[in-house]
Amino acid sequence: MSEPTGGAVPGPDGKPRCPWGLSTEDYVAYHDEEWGRPVHGDDALFERLSLEAFQSGLSWITILRRREGFRAAFSGFKIADVAAFTDTDRERLLADTGIIRNRAKIDATLGNARVLVDWSPGELDKLIWSFAPDAATRPAPKVLGDVAAITDESKALSKELKKRGLRFVGPTTAYALMQACGLVNDHLADCVSRARTDTKV
To answer: Is the dihedral of CA 71, 74, 76, 78 positive or negative?
Structure first.
């Protein structure tokens, strides 16, 4: 996201942050208020999983700047609603300039919703969070170079999601989900946001 070995750097308010969190104005609020904070709820996690899949091969800022467009296009990522999308909806999505018009990723999102709609309430939440590692076994990264892209837990989560019929859920995507949704705390040791995200909910 920035210099691979960079440590925390002071922001406009003088407080240290992860370097990527200061790379664009859009990132500041996302870094400070969202990234690494616990996310629960099947629909909320479906949204994050879908957006991480769309991010594959792109920068996260590309997705972040289109997030409201994605939410509008995908009915707020309500699993039941997306699962009911028709071929007409699919064509609408493929023509929607407010999102990333990638056919494979759109089809995967629709297909994933159709799988998840048959799960029990809370099942996706429970499954994803069951792969959260023990925070005590993870030292705080001091520089960006200390932050992994894939872990044993993300490999296992990816394998389980694929086994259950989900697509575009490789280990890198799974780990990005774990970082964004607070299963792991990858804010740098000196980052002002680290203490805010240390406790899982």
So the answer is: negative
Average pLDDT over residues 28-37: 95
Q: What's the predicted TM-score (pTM) here? A: 0.93
- φ and ψ of 64, to 5 deg: -60, -40
Q: What angle do CA 35, 39, 42 make, to 5 degrees?
A: 140
35, 60, 129, 175: the active-site residue: 60
52 catalytic per annotation: yes
Residue-wise pLDDT tens digits, 136-169: 999 999 999 999 999 999 999 999 999 999 999 9
Q: Which of 20, 27, 47, 52 is an active site residue? A: 52
Q: Which helix or strand (DSSP H or E) is residue 9 part of?
A: strand 9-10
> Can 60 be counted among the known catalytic residues?
yes
Q: Encode pLDDT of 166-178 as tens digits.
A: 999 999 999 999 9
Q: Where are the alpha helices (DSSP H) in the chain?
A: 25-33, 42-55, 60-64, 67-73, 79-83, 87-94, 103-116, 123-129, 152-163, 171-180
Nearest to 114, CA basis, from 77, 83, 147: 83
168-189: b (≥16 Cβ within 10 Å) or e: bbbbbbbbbbbbbbbbbbbbbe
